[in-house]
UniProtKB/TrEMBL annotation:
Cofactor(s) this protein cannot do without: Fe(2+)
Cofactor note: Binds 1 Fe(2+) ion per subunit.
Superkingdom of this protein's organism: Bacteria
Name under which the protein is recorded: tRNA N6-adenosine threonylcarbamoyltransferase
Name of the gene this protein is made from: tsaD
């Protein structure tokens, strides 16, 4: 196992991505997003799989070219088996299998949510978490608190019962007439607003689980009520509304995360997923260092969906000769 070159493919949702890794270092990480969904205010699965079909070849070529290696040097192909949108997964999965067959090198299946956590082990000179630690994966598709015992030994100890936290951002944004995805827009508006301006209730959910569907509804009722009194309410208070929404979402996230730290006694926390790009989430996590937590925040390029995280997961499986058979099938849902 001197030098291992892994080509990794991610296509679980609406980003087509290919990365090449040399051991635990990223040589290239090419991501093609899909603008087509913006006009619909959410990902349209049928359109996503079609776009993956047209993106996959150019993305793989670009990743190999940027890494400056020939495909004959590759040691293995890693791909996202799931969870995700079936039509999207199929494109990357079928491509990965064909490539593995054509180059006669091993195929490695990767769990998308494990990969979001293992992104912290991509070597870019930073300190890496030590096992066990807690992973908080927050994106448009998932919200989970995970106890990470080893690279491929993870336990979900809390998760959302309905909407993901990214949806809470995006659906609130839709109510306010903001573009899609609204998360980053709310983030930047919130920075100029007062988070105490408006109060939203914290939804009830058992133990370490989350619930966000009631939150979105409370935002809707609040905005409808205020707009009846003042038609320009949103326009005149947008920054304060965004700050208050973001503050409440962060409260919801951290109430359960605090509880998880207390219950497990594990004070080492790593975040991942698109919502971990949120400046308020990052600030709140960093402030926990005063309470003795060790916190890990990945670089932006490894927080949202990307193939580099699939590559690093594949690398740790490669070291253990943990390969997949060619008749493996992609799956919309897979337990951790
Ligand atoms: O991980 P990701 O790129 O894709 C998946 O959903 O798997 O996450 C996308 C989500 C969207 O809901 C988007 O609004 C949210 O991440 N997001 C943010 C920020 N940047 C992205 N939410 C809040 N603040 C941000 N800065
Ligand atoms: Zn993801």
């Amino acid at each position: 196992h001197d030098n291992c070159f892994i080509l990794a493919i991610e296509s679980s949702c609406d980003d087509t991505s290919c990365a090449v890794l040399k051991n635990n270092q990223v040589l290239s990480n090419v991501i093609a997003g899909q603008k087509i969904h913006e006009q619909y205010g959410g990902v349209v699965p049928e359109l996503a799989s079609r776009a993956h079909q047209s993106n996959i070849i150019p993305v793989v070529h670009a990743a190999l070219a940027q890494a400056n290696i020939d495909k004959k040097q590759l040691s293995a192909i890693a791909f996202t088996r799931g969870p995700g949108l079936m039509g999207s997964l199929l494109v990357g999965g079928s491509f990965a299998k064909s490539l593995s067959l054509a180059l006669d090198i091993p195929l490695i299946e990767v769990h998308h949510m494990q990969a979001h956590i293992l992104a912290h082990f991509i070597d870019h000179g930073q300190e890496m978490p030590e096992f066990p630690f807690l992973g908080l994966t927050i994106s448009g598709g998932h919200t989970q608190i995970v106890k990470v015992n080893d690279y491929h030994d993870m336990e979900v100890i809390g998760s959302t019962m309905d909407d993901a936290v990214g949806e809470a951002f995006d659906k609130s944004g839709k109510i306010l007439g903001l573009g899609y995805p609204a998360g980053p827009i709310i983030d930047s508006l919130a920075r100029k607003g007062n988070h105490d301006a408006f109060k939203f209730p914290i939804p009830k959910a058992p133990d370490l689980d989350y619930s966000f569907s009631g939150f979105k509804t409370s935002v809707l009722y609040f905005v409808q009520k205020q707009t009846q009194k003042d038609p320009d309410f949103i326009q005149n208070n947008l920054e304060d509304i965004c700050a208050s929404i973001q503050y409440t979402i962060i409260e919801i996230l951290f109430q359960k995360l605090n509880k998880a730290v207390k219950q497990t006694g594990i004070k080492s926390v790593a975040i991942g997923g698109g919502v971990s790009a949120n400046s308020g989430v990052r600030e709140r996590l960093l402030s926990k260092q005063e309470k003795g937590w060790k916190v890990f925040i990945p670089p932006f390029e490894y927080t949202t969906d990307n193939a580099a995280m699939i590559g690093i997961s594949g690398y740790y499986k490669y070291l253990q000769d943990d390969f997949s058979s060619l008749d493996i099938i992609t799956q919309a849902r897979i337990p951790m």
